[in-house]
Specification:
The protein has 85 residues and is mainly alpha-helical. The protein has one domain: Multidrug-efflux Transporter Regulator, Chain: A, Domain 2 (Orthogonal Bundle). Helix content is 58%, strand content 5%. It is built from four helices and two strands. A two-stranded antiparallel ribbon has the order 1-2.
Length: 85
């Protein structure tokens, strides 16, 4: 699948898919012409990223809604210890 097909199937803009590739979340193969060639597994990875994003939206929204500079919810999810107060 090329990036346009993956974009249509996932509902994500091609720019977002390229960004995910740039930060290492996706690694599509490249054709001899240099174009991205997403496998079914690559397209499934995008679905998994979207599910993860949906799962994390609630704690992120709640964390940033209380005007605190730290975020115990996100620190816990990241495996970081909270600073002793």
């Amino acid at each position: 699948m090329n990036i346009g097909e993956v974009s249509r199937a996932s509902g994500l803009p091609a720019k977002t898919i390229r960004y995910y590739e740039d930060i290492g979340l996706l690694r599509p193969a490249r054709g001899t012409n240099g174009h991205r060639d997403f496998s079914k597994q690559g397209a499934q990875s995008i679905d998994e990223l979207l599910a993860l994003k949906s799962t994390l939206e609630t704690p992120v929204t709640r964390c940033h809604g209380d005007d605190r500079s730290d975020c115990p919810i996100l620190d816990d999810l990241a495996g970081r210890e909270m600073a002793k107060q």
